[in-house]
Design brief:
mainly alpha
Length: about 140
């Protein structure tokens, strides 16, 4: 359970920060909020699951070293999130609220790449899919 929380907790904190910034933004209509919420849920919730599937396939291919690769990947992703994040959550939220069409989908992908990467490491670590989905949803 601790191993699962170690992977999923950073996802929750990042998603919470973006969601709080979106909630505090100047979105006025219910349709804008619904559109933004749908994109947010699809990408922030779906990318870890896509990564989980990719990581599980990779783990089957590399065998016993998968746990070590998962550990190294988590360290690398953590460093990347700390060092490469030059944009704060409010800027992400304002871009998300202002985007339309394909730009909105592109932005959804860009704000959820860290979720994809964490999903790959979850798959490499052989964590149970049901527990991962439930924990991410919570």
């Amino acid at each position: 359970m601790l191993k699962l929380l170690a992977f999923v907790l950073p996802l929750g904190l990042d998603s919470f920060a973006v969601a709080a910034a979106i909630g505090a933004s100047q979105v006025t209509t219910i349709w804008q909020r619904l559109r933004i919420s749908l994109i947010f849920v699809l990408f922030e919730g779906g990318m870890p699951l896509i990564g989980l599937a990719l990581g599980a396939m990779l783990a089957r291919g590399i065998g016993q070293v998968a746990d070590y690769v998962a550990g190294a990947a988590v360290i690398a992703i953590g460093a990347w999130m700390l060092l490469a994040s030059d944009e704060d959550e409010e800027e992400k939220a304002s871009r998300l609220t202002a985007s339309h069409g394909l730009a909105l989908i592109g932005l959804g992908i860009s704000i959820s790449l860290d979720e994809l990467a964490i999903g790959v490491t979850i798959g490499l670590a052989h964590l149970p899919i049901t527990a991962v989905i439930v924990t991410i949803a919570l």
